[in-house]
Amino acid sequence: MNIVNIDTWYAVQTQVNAEAKAARNLVRQGFEIYLPRYLKRRSHARKVEKVAAPLFPRYLFVRIDLGTQRWRSVQSTFGVSRLVCNGPDPAPVSQEVLSTLKSREDESGYIKLDQLPKLALGQKVRVLAGVFAENLGLFDGLADRDRVAILLDLLGRKVRVSIEADMVVAA
Q1: Which phi-psi region, left, alpha or beta, contains residue 46 (left: φ > 0; alpha: ψ -120 to 50)?
Q2: Are strands 168-170 and 136-142 parallel, antiparallel or unpaired?
Q3: Distance of alpha carbon 37 from alpha carbon 34, whole angstroms
Q4: Residue 90 and residue 83 in contact, taking contact as beta carbons nearer than 8 Å
Q5: How much is the average pLDDT of 68-92?
Q6: In terms of Cα–Cα distance, which of 120, 157, 159, 158 is closest to 141?
Q7: What is the pLDDT of residues 85-108, one digit of tens each?
Q8: Residue 17: pLDDT band by 50, 70, 90 thresholds?
Q9: Are the beta carbons of 37 and 54 closer than 8 angstroms?
Q10: Rounded to whole angstroms, how far apart are CA atoms 96 and 82?
Q11: pLDDT value at residue 145
């Protein structure tokens, strides 16, 4: 086994929806973890809210010094499915990957995602959710900071609708 320096990070696959549980248990064992999260838009019962969600569902990163820490204990930690390995040894994650993720965090520690879709005027789009879900339309520009305008064919005519930017994708 090759011993790697102390600044090496590794990927851990967690059980379904158990990222926070695995993170808590790994920290209790003395490991440093990094769980990149972003603010996800969630709609429920006519209410829209932003909730923290893992950027990589079922994965987090753990810093391990293979020379001094008992890294095999990660495998049996509550909430963890497995430590991602390359053969018998843990597979290191590039420091550049983690640096890039951390550089995209806002002041609250959440990863900032590109909100506005990269669409051209007149491009075909599909609505992902809401009352117009699965409808096709044409991109008609930006309505404001978080919304886009699209033209939908409703009742035989084109209707301009303003909709959340993350609810529209290119068709």
Answers
A1: left
A2: unpaired
A3: 9
A4: yes
A5: 94
A6: 120
A7: 999 999 999 999 999 999 999 999
A8: very high
A9: yes
A10: 23
A11: 63
Amino acid at 127: V
Could you give the domains of the chain? 9-103 (3.30.70.940), 124-170 (2.30.30.30)
**pTM for this prediction:** 0.68
Alpha-carbon separation of residue 171 from 17, 124, 126, 160 (angstroms): 30, 5, 5, 18
Residue with tokens 């520009």: 141
Q: What's the rounded Cα separation, in Å, for the pair 148 and 119? A: 10
Nearest to 168 by CA among 135, 121, 143, 122: 135
Residue with token string 């900032």 = 112
Q: Average pLDDT of 24-46? A: 89
